[in-house]
């Protein structure tokens, strides 16, 4: 994966297989390539060489990136990325617009997801009326709006204190276990990375090691 006409080599020789339903943490220092890898896995970027496959389909060739993102991927970001002019319940509905859900269905699903996040009394608040932890819970509800099979979280606790970090991780791992979805978290926090059954460490755009609880994958 290259940027700036090849002058920046973000990823080099990365070869990974992540199975459906896995919980994987990807860690590394700034510039290690972990976020670039997450963007490829989520269809936000296309590789300059090599391929990214989902269920044996090549992203960008066999399935469009827009279709892949809207139907199979949920994103959670460090900075929340909520739309400030929309209430919580409206923010959660935004991804559903891409899959042609009717208004009644969108509202019902958004309400259910926000209740699941413990935000029943905060549905009609704007982002600036919510705490950082509440905003991240709205962002998680939004990520789940289209029933994705893969949840990608880029430093989901980076803007949170220790109490809210623990709560967000409990929510994410609970979702992964309950729904059996694939959960991939990019983090620089060792405590979070080591809690995952599989931990991929990166350095200089390469996979440094790939460890499962039962031993090294490579």
Notes on the structure:
By secondary structure, this protein is α/β, with parallel strands linked by helices. It has seven helices and eleven strands. A hairpin with a 4-residue loop joins strand 1 (2-3) and strand 2 (8-9). Helix 4 (103-116) crosses helix 5 (132-143) and helix 5 packs parallel to helix 6. The protein starts with a strand and ends with a strand. The model has no long low-confidence stretch (mean pLDDT 90).
Q: What's the structural blueprint in terms of helices and strands?
A:
Elements (H helix, E strand, L loop, with lengths): L1 E2 L4 E2 L13 E5 L6 H8 L11 E2 L2 E2 L6 H8 E5 L10 H6 L9 H14 L15 H12 L6 E5 L7 H18 L2 E6 L2 H4 L4 E6 L2 E7 L2 E2 L2
Parallel strand pairs: 3-8, 3-9, 6-7, 7-8
Antiparallel strand pairs: 1-2, 4-5, 9-10, 10-11
Helix pairs in contact: 4-5, 5-6
């Amino acid at each position: 994966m290259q940027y700036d006409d090849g002058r920046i080599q973000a990823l080099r020789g990365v070869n990974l297989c992540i199975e459906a339903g896995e919980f994987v943490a990807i860690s590394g220092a700034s510039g290690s390539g972990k976020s670039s890898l997450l963007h490829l896995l989520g269809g936000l970027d296309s590789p300059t060489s090599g391929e990214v496959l989902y269920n044996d389909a090549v992203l960008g060739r066999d399935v469009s990136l827009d279709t892949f993102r809207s139907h199979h991927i949920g994103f959670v970001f460090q900075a929340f990325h909520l739309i400030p002019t929309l209430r919580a319940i409206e923010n959660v509905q935004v991804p559903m617009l891409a899959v042609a859900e009717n208004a009644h269905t969108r509202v019902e699903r958004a309400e259910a997801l926000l209740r699941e996040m413990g935000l029943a009394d905060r549905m009609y608040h704007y982002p600036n009326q919510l705490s950082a932890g509440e905003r991240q819970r709205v962002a998680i509800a939004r990520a789940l709006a289209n029933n994705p099979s893969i949840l990608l979280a880029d430093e989901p606790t980076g803007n949170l204190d220790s109490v809210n970090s623990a709560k967000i991780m409990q929510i994410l791992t609970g979702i992964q276990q309950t729904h059996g979805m694939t959960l991939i978290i990019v983090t620089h926090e060792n405590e979070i990375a080591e809690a995952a059954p599989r931990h991929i460490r990166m350095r200089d755009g390469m996979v440094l090691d790939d460890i499962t609880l039962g031993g090294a994958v490579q």
